[in-house]
Amino acid sequence: MAREPKDPEYLSTLQRGLSVLRAFDQAHPEMALSEVATVTGLPPAAARRCLNTLVALGYVAQIGRKFLLRPEVLSFGSAYLASMNIEQVAVPPLQLLRDNTGDSASLAVRSGRDLLYVCHIPTNRRIRLGVGVGTRFPLHATSMGKVLLAYQDEAGIEGFLAAAPLARLTERTVTDPQAFRERLRMVRERAYDSALDELDYGIVSVAVPVFGAENRVVAAINCSTSTTRISQDELVRTRLPMLREAAREIEEQLRRWPTLARSLSAG
To answer: Are 165 and 215 within one domain?
Structure first.
């Protein structure tokens, strides 16, 4: 469990409740009380109180000794998507990208050491990794993640590298800190990144930044597809102009919807 800030306005009970909700994932779709306590790092008594409260509110169900999420938790995500006008801002240019290329097209932001998908237009073709709104992947293993990291200042990049080792997901994942620094330097020079088999085998992608106010990168967008469809060089050559045009359109829309721009850049 994350260390609680020393702030009189900080509600540790709310933090604990949210940590319980976030404990459920693909690896832990349902858990007993003891498992929730282990995953969250909460004392069993605190975990029990959180679970009982969430059951009463309809966000969690209890079946026997196991707890699991209920569909009501989707209201949090749908409230964000509706209030931030994602449909108007990001969907049209990403939909056009998908229609013109057959690739999946996505918009994502940084969330700690992860990439968090905010909008995703899937391809009609089957791919190895399932992706949707709310999906998280390690920043360092994705083209969008490296785009987001590349525009951090030197202190931000060094802090990211110092916090934890870069996990090797495939033999092509960049895990050497110096090689990673060089990769980020190239991203800044070219204003794009392309990843081949770095997150998982058989996946190739290319990503560009989305700029908000004060020329600050607030998000990234990408095209992603199977390596059986296209080579990395051809993907970059053919998709990069369309991606940059889509990014410019999203940037223009962000000027019309400043609330979303502020939300994306708040992290």
So the answer is: yes
Within this chain, do residues 177 and 62 fall inside the same structural domain, yes or no? Answer: no
pLDDT digits (tens, 9 = 90+) for 8-60: 888 889 999 999 999 998 889 999 999 999 999 999 999 999 999 999 999 99
Q: Is the pTM of this model over 0.85?
A: no
197 and 239 part of one domain: yes
Q: How far apart are CA 239 and CA 248, in angstroms?
A: 14
Rounded alpha-carbon distances, angstroms, from residue 244 to 184, 190, 212, 221, 247: 19, 12, 14, 9, 5
Q: Count CA within 13 A, CB hemisphere, residue 231.
A: 3
